[in-house]
């Protein structure tokens, strides 16, 4: 029993750090892939989307699943990632849209910022953040039931 609390602390720290690093990568890849898809389809009325955009969407979705799966290790990963990279920017944009747009200026590249802007103003970033927080809370509740 003596080794269990410290191992939980290590799991929490590593999961939290992983969520903090992987969440913006996953959302960024999703946002950029979505931007590419939207730009290709709306600009050319293409029957098929952009293959790189499709690939990026799949990779981003898998990375986001990875963040959610961190909850099996410790709920800190999805909760920290969801709060820092989804809930806080989403709520900030709801309260002060100008501040949300100012945050977009911190991103490298106009296409990435445009992809994030779509997520930010549509509420998708806020929703993704709350889903990750919910995943973390659900894993905590499931762990406590055992």
From TrEMBL:
Q: Which UniProt keywords apply?
A: Membrane, Transmembrane, Transmembrane helix
Q: Where are the transmembrane segments?
A: 12-32, 52-72, 79-96, 116-138
Protein name (Swiss-Prot/TrEMBL): Uncharacterized protein
């Amino acid at each position: 029993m003596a080794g269990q609390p410290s191992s939980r602390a290590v799991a929490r720290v590593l999961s939290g750090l992983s969520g903090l690093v992987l969440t913006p990568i996953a959302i960024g890849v999703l946002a950029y892939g979505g931007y590419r898809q939207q730009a290709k389809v709306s600009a050319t009325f293409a029957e098929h989307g952009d293959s790189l955009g499709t690939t990026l969407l799949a990779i981003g979705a898998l990375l986001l699943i990875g963040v959610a799966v961190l909850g099996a290790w410790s709920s800190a990963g999805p909760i920290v990632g969801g709060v820092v990279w989804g809930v806080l920017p989403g709520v900030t944009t709801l309260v002060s849209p100008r501040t949300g747009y100012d945050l977009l200026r911190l991103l490298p590249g106009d296409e990435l910022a445009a992809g994030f802007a779509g997520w930010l103003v549509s509420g998708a970033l806020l929703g993704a953040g709350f889903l990750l927080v919910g995943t973390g809370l659900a894993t905590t509740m499931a762990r406590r039931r055992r």
